[in-house]
Amino acid sequence: MAVGKILLTIILVKSVWSTSLRDNVPLWGNSYTVEGVLQLPYAELKEPFTAYYDATTNQSRIDYYGDLVVTMQLQAKNTSIKIAYMTTELVLNKKSCFLVNGSSPIQSVLPDLTDFKKVGQDSIGSTMTDKWVRVMTHGKKKNTYTMWVDSETSAPVRYEMMGYDTLLGSHYDKYYLDYSNFQNKTLNASVFDYTSFGLTCSGFPGPGVSERRVLINPMVEYLNG
Fold first, then answer.
1. Which helix (H) or strand (E) covers residue 80, if one does?
2. Cα–Cα distance between 47 and 96 in angstroms, integer?
3. Under the phi-then-psi rule, with left for phi > 0, alpha for psi from -120 to 50, and beta for the rest, what region is 218?
4. What are the boundaries of each domain within the chain?
C-alpha cells in the first residue's frame, strides 16, 4: 500500500511539474506587432522589419526597410501579396504589386516555443532574459534554436539559429532576429488593405510554386508558419 501511495505521489508531482512547465512557455497572443532586425552574419546582411500578425482574421504582414518591400499573407482570401520595386527593360525601379493565389498560411516572425526547454538566464544588452533552447538532429547534422525572452515582461528579445540551412541543408549557417517594440493589440483591418497602395496587382513573375513562395514571403526561410 505504501508503495502505491509513493507511486501516486510521484505521478501527481510529475503531472503538476509538466503542467507548470507548459504554462510557463511564453505565448505571443493571437494578435501582435513587433519590430526587429534579421541578421545573417556570414552574409553581412541586416534587414530591418516591422511585422503585423493576426491569427483571429488569418492575416499577416511584414514590411522590410520601412515600406520598401511589403509582404502580406491573407489566408482568408487565399492570397499572398508582395509590393516591391521592379526594374525591367521597360521600367526602372517602378513600385509594383504582385499577387499569388493559392495556399498562403499566415507568417509569424516569432517561433512557437512549445517544444523548447528553458535552460537558464542570460543578459542581452541591459535586459535580463530567460533562455529557451531546442536542438534538432538529422543524421550527423544538428540545428540549435535559441530564444531569449525578457524575464520581466515575457517580450521577445532575440531568436537565433545555428546549424544547417533549412532549404538545402548543405552548408553551416547562422542567423538571428533581434526584436523591439513588441505589442499585443488588436490590429485595424486597414493594415492588410493592399489596395490602399493604389497599385494594380499582377501575377508574380518567375519560377515554380515553391520558389515563388519564398520570393513572395522571404521570412518563411527563417520561421516556418
1. strand 79-86
2. 20
3. alpha
4. 50-108+189-221
Instruction: Give me the DSSP letters along 197-217.
Output: G---EEEPPSS-HHHHHHHH-
Q: Assign 157 to helix, strand or coil.
A: strand
Cα(142)–Cα(163) distance, integer angstroms? 6
User: Could you give the CA distance from residue 58 to residue 107 in angstroms, rounded to a whole number?
Assistant: 9
What string of pLDDT tens digits covers the 225 residues of the chain? 454 444 443 333 333 333 334 448 999 999 999 999 999 887 788 999 999 999 999 999 999 999 899 999 999 889 999 999 987 777 788 999 999 887 678 999 999 999 999 999 999 999 999 999 999 887 777 889 999 999 999 999 999 998 875 544 455 678 999 999 999 999 999 999 999 999 999 886 655 444 445 577 888 888 864
The 8-class DSSP code of residue 15 comes to H
What are the CA-CA distances from residue 62 to residues 7, 50, 67, 223 (Å)?
51, 6, 9, 13
Residue in the block written with cell 512549445: 114
